[in-house]
Amino acid sequence: MAALLGDPEVMTYYPAPKTRPQAAAWIAWNQRNYAEHGYGLWIIETHEGEFVGDCGLTWQTVDDVPRLEVGYHVRHELHGRGYATEAAAACRDFAQETLGAPEVVAIIHPSNTASRRVAEKIGMTPVGHATSSHAAERIVMGTRFTSTT
Q1: Gap between the terminal Cα atoms of the chain
Q2: Is 149 inside a domain boundary?
């Protein structure tokens, strides 16, 4: 994980690649998500067990409102092979079918067209913009689920 989060190509749209201690803090944050919510980010692997990246669901605050986000990171040499789309679709389905979430979002840097394409492929459309103290403006893409009850 430290190599993935420290890769300048993977982290192009973040303020900076993560150092090893920052990656360790990120892992600890994810462990707290599991303890609190029962889910977080999962490791993505090939069927042969090769590490691809991570993808999962985390709560993010968007304009002072908590929103369930699908997030993903894939090793740069594996970009464009559909791994992020397949994993993000599985997370979307888990959010809807298992968690009963009313929606999921993806918070994306405006220049990150690859991430935006992943969001579009799993049925998301632009739903707004967000800014934070540590990041430039972001596009918020999302999909609302239709209740089956």
Answers
A1: 40
A2: no
Return the residue matching tokens 């209740």.
147
The answer to whether 46 and 142 have CB atoms below 8 angstroms apart is no
What total number of domains does the chain contain?
Answer: 1
Helix (H) or strand (E) holding 5: helix 2-5
pLDDT tens-digit readout, 70-93:
999 999 999 999 999 999 999 999
Rg of the chain in Å (alpha carbons): 15
d(CA 38, CA 4): 24
Range of the domain at 135: 2-144
Whole-model pTM: value is 0.91
Q: Are 106 and 112 in contact (CB under 8 A)?
A: no
> Could you tell me if 142 and 107 are in contact, meaning their C-beta atoms sit under 8 angstroms apart?
no
Q: Where are the alpha helices (DSSP H) in 9-100?
A: 20-37, 83-97
